[in-house]
Amino acid sequence: MVSIRLHTYCNLLAIFYIHLNTLTKAGPHDHVMTSAFQASLEGGLSSITKGQPVKVTHGSQVTLRHTYGRPCWLHSHAHVYPVKYPDKRGSSHQQQVTCYSFKDVNNWWIVKKPDANSLVVNFDDPEPIRHGDVIQLVHGLTMRALNSHDVAAPVTPTCQEVTCYIDYNISMKADILWRVEIANKETGGDEWNAINSHVRLIHLGTKAALRFTGRQLPAWGFHQHEVAADKNIVQKDTIWNVEEHKYTKVDDKKERDRQLHLSEMIPTKKTKFSFLEKFIELQYKMLTFADHLSPEEHLYSSSPLEWPLLDKTIAYWLDNKSNGQIHLVGNM
């Protein structure tokens, strides 16, 4: 029995090896995979893999993608949180920070050295960001800094609200310092690199991590996803990675805004990503991604542990209108 199962798992691994080495081109649903996986495909993420700098430094312009689970990017816009929520809780009325599921010019942020006045990269003496460094993140278009404080988040009140700070000239001071923690520094080094570094941003004032909560904001937040700060730091939803990346070369805001609006976000050239890395990520997505799509279990659904031996059928496709279905039936 053990040899049969071992043979089955070896066959499964071989099938995935053939699959991943044959299907090397990008497709319409690649966005569910991480940036590194997408960048390994032909036709995937050209603006990431071709010509952009690797090292994140003071003055870097970046888009920050939530690495695991639902694909979305750290985002802000000029709209503010409502003064009062329906449950009578109050907010700070600061600028909203969300996770947006589409590429957008409002996804750009500038990495700023806390005591520096200029946002331009010092090309004569660049300063790569390392594990443990303290930074500010300034929103590219509104020029307001990422902030958190002891105010409950809008949809997940057990977490802290995350905002872009607006100075209303009241007692609520700015708390805009964040410490960079590189979660995979043992394998990728302690310098913050675009795409491959898995980063946690820890709010210095409250020791809470920037987190994608997975919950959707109401209409006032345009149904984008909530971003909060969570004191439970070590979890998948607190990991982010830089996707698009370029260096700030001018201090003039109008010119910077013009360049952001012209930013290229169309994929084309692949980078290296090993079979084992692809295999592990694909298994993880197969195990978890359905949780983000539907809370209801299909009548004939099967668990991942049942897939290798095909103890039950695997539902591949369902048409909600006609109820037409395609199932895989085992022959072992």
Question: What does this protein structure show overall?
Answer:
This protein is an alpha+beta fold. The chain has three domains: 23-32 and 39-47 and 269-294, no CATH class; 51-267, Trefoil (Trefoil (Acidic Fibroblast Growth Factor, subunit A)); 301-331, no CATH class. Helices cover 17% and strands 26% of the residues. It contains six helices and 14 strands. The longest helix has 21 residues, at 2-22. The radius of gyration is 22 Å and the shape is globular. The protein starts with a helix and ends with a strand. Belongs to the glycosyltransferase 39 family.
Short description:
With 332 residues, the protein is an alpha+beta fold.
Over the alpha carbons, how many angstroms does the gyration radius reach? 22 Å
Strand-residue proportion: 25-35%
So, CATH architecture of the largest domain? Trefoil
Average predicted local confidence, pLDDT: 82
Number of domains: 3
Q: What best-fitting shape do the alpha-carbon axes yield?
A: globular
CATH topology name of the largest domain: Trefoil (Acidic Fibroblast Growth Factor, subunit A)
How many individual helices?
Answer: 6
Query: How many β-strand runs?
Result: 14
Helix content: 10-25%
Which terms summarize this structure?
3 domains; 17% helix; 332 residues; 6 helices; Trefoil (Acidic Fibroblast Growth Factor, subunit A); alpha+beta
